[in-house]
Amino acid sequence: MKKYIKKPLLTFWIIISISFLTDAQTHKFSNYTVKDGLSQSNGLCFFQDSESFLWVGTQKGLNKFDKKTGKFIIVEHLAENSLINNNSVYTIIL
Questions:
Q1: In this predicted structure, what is the pLDDT of residue 17?
Q2: CA angle 23-27-28, nearest 5°?
Q3: Number of continuous H segments (helices) and E segments (strands) in the chain
Q4: What pLDDT score does 75 carry?
Q5: Cα angle vertex 84, ends 81, 89, to 5°?
Q6: Sequence ranges of the domains in the chain
Q7: What angle do CA 55, 61, 62 make, to 5 degrees?
Q8: Which of 27, 36, 61, 73 gets the most CB atoms within 10 Å of its CB?
Q9: In 1-94, which ranges are E strands?
Q10: How far apart are CA 59 and CA 41, in angstroms?
Q11: What torsion, rounded to 10 degrees, do the Cα atoms 33, 64, 53, 91 define?
């Protein structure tokens, strides 16, 4: 009878130990808004390039985030005679 109890109990402790090990990682998240220089608080698409710049597309344009300075740079829209008539960025293609 003890053999039947030990095996499930051991299995239970192994599973619990593994779950604690995998959950030990911590992730840091930051929330950026218009106050931080973002053109709009709702990002529609995101891309991180090889130089570690984070590009954020919004309905008000394209934003580039520099981790070193912690600031956003709003990429100016195209010339007035452009075929594109709004600043919405829904997709960033490499």
A1: 72
A2: 155
A3: 1, 4
A4: 86
A5: 140
A6: 27-75
A7: 20
A8: 61
A9: 45-48, 54-58, 61-66, 71-75
A10: 10
A11: 100
